[in-house]
Design a protein that fits this description.
Largest sheet of chain A: 6 strands, mixed
Number of strands of chain A: 22
Oligomer: heterodimer
CATH superfamily of the largest domain in chain A: P-loop containing nucleotide triphosphate hydrolases
CATH topology of the largest domain in chain A: Rossmann fold
Number of strands of chain B: 2
Helix content of chain A: 25-40%
Helix content of chain B: 55-70%
Radius of gyration of chain B: 22 Å
Number of helices of chain B: 13
Distance between the termini of chain B: 30 Å
Distance between the termini of chain A: 29 Å
Shape of chain A: globular
Strand content of chain B: under 5%
Strand order of the largest sheet of chain B: 1-2
Chain lengths: ~525, ~350
């Protein structure tokens, strides 16, 4: 596998099949797409990449008729179109394979494959014999050998994904959109998928390929469009774009950019010689993490670097017991912790501040006081009764210490700003007296002022002797905030940067690095749906 | 990252990802039990009743049971389609009664009116149910509960608050549909058998049938695969209303009158029969033959309790309820073993 030479056959740029120009789409409070131009040509595999919130999924949804375009125009096969439903887009010849398998698990493989276009015989009744034979043939062509009469759910996820693929290509599609199709595939299946993609390209079909795995992009794609903050920042042949440049475009950084110090509120080094407070060894979760090991010493901030889908959130979740690992150990302050159990992790002193505040943390209808006391409640009550005075003391302490701006402890958390909500969550976990704090995107979506405050707090907490794991898509935050940065790629640790090596340049190089020669297996991580 | 499938340590949290191609033996056994458990129970119940009561296996008793099963079976037929889409239809008991009264009233104008009027009205109510559920995305439970109450209201209006009973002329062709016999078997039974054969062909062998399973199995996926979800849902509620109306009309022909007090609680009986027959209440899995077996099983139990004589007929419901609870527990257990729930 030669990473940079791309696809072998030179891209034959056919006529534009599906394109958008000046596409804009807004949601309340968010400008998801802003004047995007994008063209998928016949006989071309077009990679669509971008980090979180770049607008990839919105663009795909507009192309497939799930969303309507706000502004701009969608053109399909030469004429302007407006798909009202996914069904219309499908009938027009746009087939989509979704990351999550979207089939009916209780129905047979063949019925799934042919749903809505079953071969029919006399009286309009379905000709099952023919359907089974054709399903068997279609799947055999993709290297899947199963009894097509069995329910789909009896297949592994990879095989189910192949059924979805067979379905997508067996309709007369002219555009095939693949949204992270490899996230649950085994290497052998990935190879089959790439074979199918090349076959589609040969037939003059336009393929739009969304993936976070750079190796895959370079292996199978001809053209790449990079989205960032709702804009298309680059379009061109992928072979002409080296990996480092690609990563820089996604992250919105310039290579060799001279970074100004002090953009963030981090003070810097907390290097200590103490015994690690957290030792995670060989954390492995199928399709998500591959033997991730890291240590954190008290008073140290360790950053987790990597692209979307590299396994950052999964690592934090595996340590906190929220994602049961298939193998691997977690040791807190010298004591092994039972993995896969959140209560055990919390008891051992691990606190996870999850990425999605709204869904996984805050209870907006409850007061600041109740939100802070929620997790610590068992420790604050006696004989099942809540000790009100102690809660008041704890809440008061943290509201002062974290400088939570609220009218009082009884204000509803839903009424606070994002930054203060984040502080309330932080207070909740600090009330548990943790030894290790795992922060997943602690400053995302909060305003600049609050961001600086949270960053300062993280520093203070480390100074107080906490071990902190910091996950951030904000490069400055990660680099200035961390004493060390562990770089993840496709679910595995690829590099660890320490001291002076913690620079943007080094970080991007680590992320962009081509796989080592012996690592010929295509990446199988993913599932980081953040 | 490759996962060695020969590794003795199997990943624990990847049940769905790590399944072998093809079901395990215990899964297949569970599937068999789920599909044929009701039939086995029916055979045992019939044998037990036969051995215990001389009056059970008599021609009269059999004929009575068959005919009274027929009406519930027709209602359960429509209900099976609804439940396979993951829905529920509580209006069928009221529609059954309404269908009976409309048929009896219409029979004075001839057989065509006696059939078309109840079928049309009940299908229309079912259609409206379907529209509200599919297009306005209201909960089937509430929509059909409203229809249950509404149809009762229409019924009371038609019959002057139940004081008026319309009779069917015993000599008419319409009455023959209820009371006639062919080869010693009642006409409603023949009609029911015919409907089940047709229904089974539609459910298993037509494209519409595939849509019904797909909508119940995974509605979002079905929509993405191009299944007309709303149309399919509307159709099954219309069908359910139609079946309830037809069952009511046949019942009126059999009784030679439209009895207003019939049909209350019938929706629950029909749902019980369908679930006992192996159809998943959560949708996506089920079959008509099972519903037929479920109906027969309920009727045999009722009949046995009547045979005992010393038992109050109220106990019928206790036994039916207890039986349903056992079936649902067993189904859930079997379903978990098959990992479909």
């Amino acid at each position: 596998m030669l990473p940079v030479t791309g696809s072998g056959a030179p891209p034959v740029a056919g006529p534009a099949m599906l394109s958008v120009s000046g596409l804009g789409k807004s949601f309340p409070g968010v400008r998801a797409l802003d004047g995007v131009d994008f063209t998928a040509r016949a006989g071309e595999v077009h990679a669509l990449i971008g980090e979180n919130g770049a607008g990839k999924s919105t663009l795909i949804k507009v192309l497939t008729g799930v969303y309507k375009a706000g502004e701009g125009e969608v053109r399909y096969d030469g004429s302007a179109v407006r798909f009202a439903t996914p069904l219309q887009a499908q009938h027009a010849g746009i087939s989509t394979i979704y990351q999550e398998v979207n089939l009916v698990p209780l129905m047979s493989v063949a019925r799934n494959l042919f749903l809505g276009r079953e071969p029919r015989g006399r009286l309009g009744l379905i000709d099952f014999r023919r359907m089974h034979r054709e399903a068997q043939e279609a799947l055999r062509g993709l290297g899947v050998r199963v009894d097509v009469r069995r329910p789909l759910r009896e297949l592994g996820v990879g095989a189910q994904q192949m059924v979805a693929l067979a379905r997508a290509v067996s309709v007369d599609a002219r555009v095939v959109i693949m949204d992270e199709p490899t996230s649950s595939l085994e290497p052998r299946e990935v190879a089959t998928l790439f074979g199918v993609i090349r076959m589609l390209r040969g037939r003059g079909i336009a393929v739009i390929y969304v993936s976070h795995r750079l190796d895959e992009l370079y292996e199978v794609c001809d053209t790449v469009t990079v989205l960032r903050d709702g804009k298309a920042v680059h379009t061109g042949p992928i072979a002409e774009l080296d990996r480092l440049r690609l990563v820089a475009l996604m992250l919105g950084r310039e290579i060799g950019d001279v970074r100004e110090e002090g953009l963030t509120k981090f003070s810097g080094n907390h290097d200590t010689e103490a015994q690690p407070v957290l030792e995670a060894t060989g954390l492995t979760v199928r399709h998500q993490l591959d033997g991730v090991s890291l240590t954190i010493r008290p008073g140290e901030v360790v950053g987790l670097g990597g692209l979307l889908g590299s396994g950052r959130s999964e690592t934090a979740k595996a340590i906190a017991g929220a994602l049961p690992p298939d193998s691997g150990r977690v040791v807190i302050a010298g004591v092994p912790v039972r993995t896969g159990s959140t209560p055990a992790a919390i008891r051992a002193g691990v606190s996870l501040l999850p990425e999605d505040r709204k869904a996984e943390g805050i209870v907006p209808g409850l007061s600041v006081r109740e939100n802070i006391a929620l997790a610590a409640l068992p420790g604050l009550s006696r004989f099942g009764l809540v000790d009100e005075a102690r809660i008041d003391r704890v809440v008061d302490t943290f509201m002062k210490r974290l400088r939570i701006k609220a009218s009082g402890p009884h204000q509803k958390v839903g009424e606070l700003s994002g930054g203060n909500q984040q502080k309330v969550l932080l207070a909740r976990w600090l009330a548990m007296n943790p030894k290790v704090l795992l922060l997943d995107e602690p400053t995302r979506g909060i305003d600049v002022g609050a961001k600086a405050e949270v960053q300062k707090l993280i520093d203070e907490l480390a100074d107080d002797g906490l071990g902190v794991l910091l996950i951030s898509s904000d490069m400055e935050e990660l680099i200035e905030g961390s004493d060390r940065v562990v770089v993840l790629k496709d679910g595995a640790v690829v590099e660890e940067l320490t001291g002076d090596a913690v620079t943007e340049d080094r970080l991007m190089r680590a992320i962009a690095a081509a796989p080592a020669a012996q690592a010929t297996t295509p990446a199988t991580s993913g599932g980081d749906d953040d | 990252m490759t996962v060695d499938t020969e590794s003795p340590v199997r990943p624990m949290n990847t049940v769905t990802e790590d399944e072998p191609l093809g079901a395990t033996r215990s899964e297949r056994l569970s599937a068999l039990a789920q599909q044929h458990g009701a039939l086995v129970t029916l055979v045992i119940a019939v044998l037990a009743a036969w051995l215990s009561f001389d009056t059970f296996m008599t021609t009269d008793n059999m004929q009575n049971m068959a005919v009274s099963s027929a009406f519930l079976a027709v209602v359960a037929l429509g209900m099976t389609f609804v439940i396979v889409t993951g829905g529920i239809d509580l209006s069928v008991g009221s529609l059954f009664a309404l269908g009976g009264v409309l048929a009896a009233w219409g029979s004075q104008y001839g057989t065509a009116v006696a059939l078309l009027l109840p079928l049309g009205v009940c299908a229309l109510i079912g259609f409206v149910n379907g529209l509200l559920i599919a297009r306005s995305r209201l909960a089937p439970f509430i929509v059909t509960l409203a229809a249950l109450l509404g149809a009762r209201g229409i019924l009371l209006a038609v019959t002057d608050e139940g004081s008026k009973t319309y009779l069917v002329d015993k000599g008419s062709f319409f009455a023959t549909l209820g009371q006639g016999k062919l080869l010693g078997i009642g006409a409603p039974v023949w009609i029911t058998v015919g409907l089940f054969v047709a229904g089974a062909v539609v459910l298993r062998r037509s494209r519409f049938g595939q849509y019904v399973y797909a909508v119940g199995g995974n509605e979002d996926a079905a929509a993405l695969m191009g299944v007309p979800v709303a149309r399919t849902k509307t159709a099954v509620y219309t069908l359910s209303g139609l079946c309830a109306g037809l069952a009511g009309a046949l019942n009126a022909a059999w009784l030679a009158s439209g009895v207003t007090i019939l049909g209350s609680g019938m929706e629950l009986e029909a749902i019980s029969a369908v679930v006992i027959g192996g159809t998943l209440l959560s949708g996506g899995f089920g079959f008509l033959s099972g519903s037929l077996v479920g109906v027969l099983l309920l009727k045999v139990i009722q009949n046995v309790i009547n045979q005992i004589g010393s038992l109050d007929s109220a106990y019928q419901q206790v036994v039916s309820g207890g039986f349903l609870a056992v079936v649902v527990v067993a189904q859930t257990w079997l379903g978990r073993r098959r990992r479909v729930l």
